[in-house]
Write a structure and sequence with these properties.
stress response, 4-stranded mixed sheet, Ribosomal Protein S5, domain 2, elongated
């Protein structure tokens, strides 16, 4: 019996044609959301040739011994804004590309317009490119903030090719782009602000910066969760990433380096936004403390570390009998999770009754305190308010609180104590070594030091739990 042979078709393997710019996940077709990292709009078509198809090319410039490279070509140049220079590592490196990101209205454009003006006032050519405002609007702000200079050039453009044409014509030593999300090019797919456009625009600016030895500062937007908008590759392309932080209801601004190829990545700069523009704050500790004619319950001062800079911060607390079945826990400027832990430790380890009390905790001056060393100050402030005990105004509390009620040592303790002494404080409560069972007192930096092992001991040493009158458990 003859049968007909059915041909079996070979299975062809389809190559991935699209790749996620965030995590590298590949797929054979375009999708709106990455199947690996769940990022939206990050999947793009792969157009690069395979490695086996790339042929070696003759280099246009021979490799140089590292000892023969001129180090003076990368000498730092100060911008004229001291706090920014501090964060950058004492100035801008020629050819460096800096990304400054921050929330809308925080003052990014105002700060960089001031930087551009200070750079140009000493005779260095500067080009400020704005894609969000007209030239007249930028000129109006420059007149209000005294940011006018003869060598400061202004261009309102949104096309990358035209921006590069302005660079060829003006030949600046500093280029400011406000912002990268508004600049686009016809050579890339998508609209300005998209993943592909941002990547191509940033790559082009990096290339021209390295070729001309021109410093470039780019303003970037952030998403609603505070991360930099655009592909993650954007942060890898640039040399320095700066985060500009601040509460729109407060004039204080903080600039923080999260990446710096030419300097420290843990430094911060302080500014204050006013009617006449942005002003440097070289000694910001006074902004986060208040002055009282007499000591009041519920206040305690601590010393936090912002980068390598010690800053004083005052925490205020208010605790009172709650009419609600579930008492309120409201905080501003402090981490809610850490504060909940501190309240639990006070209740269980220090026997301070709080389960039926509303507790409100806030910082002074709009400061954002995330340093764990502020745990002890928060505990002291809450206990002081709950037990209605006044503390001396010249005392600081520094220490991280553990779940067992112990106080853990914090880094940079010597610098914190020196800063407190410089500002006129006379006493400090700090953690002692776990091996020491007895409380000790010593004089350091002109301070009377109270080294204690636990939160309960700290409250006893400050006279909170052992205040005259009823014991703490009955107050």
């Amino acid at each position: 019996m003859g049968g007909r042979t059915v041909p079996v078709m070979a299975k062809t393997q389809t190559r991935p044609s699209h790749r996620c710019t965030e995590c590298g996940w590949t797929t054979v077709r375009w999708v709106g959301r990455c199947g690996e990292c769940q990022a939206w709009g990050s999947v793009v078509e792969v157009g690069a040739p395979r490695l086996a198809e790339v042929k070696a090319a003759t280099p246009t410039r021979r490799a140089t011994r590292i000892k023969d490279v001129d180090a003076d070509a990368a000498a730092r140049v100060r911008t004229g804004v001291g706090e920014l220079d501090r964060v950058l590592g004492d100035g801008l490196v020629p050819g460096a590309v800096v990304l400054l990101a921050g929330e809308p209205g925080v003052g990014k454009s105002t700060l960089l317009l001031e930087v551009a003006a200070q750079w140009a006032k000493v005779g260095r050519t500067t080009l400020y490119v704005t894609g969000e405002e007209s030239a007249a609007q930028v000129r109006l702000r420059a007149g209000r903030t005294d940011a006018l200079a003869d060598d400061l050039f202004l261009a309102a453009e949104t096309d990358l090719g035209t921006v590069l044409g302005h660079v060829e014509e003006v030949r600046p030593s500093l280029l400011v782009v406000d912002s990268v999300q508004t600049i686009g090019t016809a050579e890339a797919d998508g609209s300005p602000g998209g993943v592909t456009q941002i990547r191509e625009v940033t790559a082009a600016l990096v290339r021209v910066a390295k070729q001309r030895g021109m410093a470039v500062i780019i303003i970037g937007h952030v998403t609603k969760d505070g991360s930099i908008a655009g592909p993650r590759l954007l942060e890898h392309l640039v040399d320095v990433v700066l985060a500009f932080e601040g509460d729109r209801h407060s004039g204080f601004r903080l600039i923080r380096a999260t990446k710096n190829r030419f300097g420290p990545a843990d430094e911060v700069g302080c500014f204050e936004m006013g009617e006449d523009g942005i002003v440097e704050v070289s000694d910001p500790s006074g902004l986060f403390t208040s002055r009282h004619e007499e000591p009041v319950p519920g206040t305690c001062v601590t010393v936090t570390m912002e980068g390598r800079r010690p800053l004083l911060a005052e925490l205020q607390a208010l605790a009172g009998k709650s009419p609600l079945q579930v008492p309120r826990r409201t905080m501003h400027g402090v981490d809610s999770g850490r504060l909940a832990m501190v309240l639990a430790v006070l209740e269980r380890r220090a026997r301070v009754r709080l389960h039926d009390s509303d507790v409100y905790v806030s910082t002074v001056g709009g400061a954002r305190v995330v340093d764990p060393s502020a745990d002890l100050a928060a505990a002291v402030a809450v206990a002081s308010s709950a037990l209605d005990v006044r503390l001396t105004q010249r005392c600081v509390a520094i220490g991280e609180v553990g779940l067992a009620g112990e106080l853990r040592r914090v880094p940079g303790l010597e610098r914190r104590l020196a800063e407190a002494a410089r500002l006129g404080f006379t006493e400090a409560v700090i953690p002692s070594d776990a091996r020491q069972s007895e409380q000790i007192s010593m004089s350091r930096h002109g301070l009377l030091i109270h080294a204690v092992p636990t939160v309960a001991d700290a409250l006893d040493r400050l006279g909170i739990r052992r205040a005259p009158g009823r014991p703490a458990a009955d107050r």
